[in-house]
Amino acid sequence: MTEIISTTILLILIMDPLGNLPVFMTILKNLNAKRRRIVVIREMIIALIVMLLFLFLGEKILNILNLKTETVSISGGIILFLIAIKMIFPSEDNNGISSNEEPFLVPLAIPLVAGPSLLATLMLLSHQYLHHMSYLVGSLLIAWCFTIIVLLLSGFFLKLFGSKGVNALERLMGLILIMLATQMFLDGIRTWFQN
Fold first, then answer.
1. Is the pTM of the predicted complex or chain greater than 0.85?
2. Beta partners for 106?
3. pLDDT digits (tens, 9 = 90+) for 148-177
């Protein structure tokens, strides 16, 4: 039981639903509340499928594609960096996000929820608890449910902060994302040089 609790807490911290909330709010702010809920649920289901795939097949997938885990970290850092640039310097007409378009797969499902660090952690945990995969799946589902509940409340936070508050959070999250992206990229480079 304590293993499930500690693993669940670890996964929640890595998924970082509170940290991702401003990004979700910013990207989905042009959608109406009903559509926003549908998109959040869809993206979270995609993220869950990817997380389960990496939990059970992650290392095999990377071996088949001849990719190393540091490659996942470097590419995730580049994607986050590009997203952060758009958040800090939005285009004049639509704040970087078209009101007619909605995100699909990138950036919400991957890399914000199912990011490189989470996918790498799931692969490591699957090695550590090879004979207790049911515990890992249970922990992942609990962490996923907690994350989706937090993200579904984004409409409440959108009303609370207003459009100016969301724009300020967008710039702030962009700055934080640039730092996280750079760190993710550098971690991948460091690991690559060590191997």
1. no
2. 104
3. 998 998 778 767 877 677 678 778 877 877
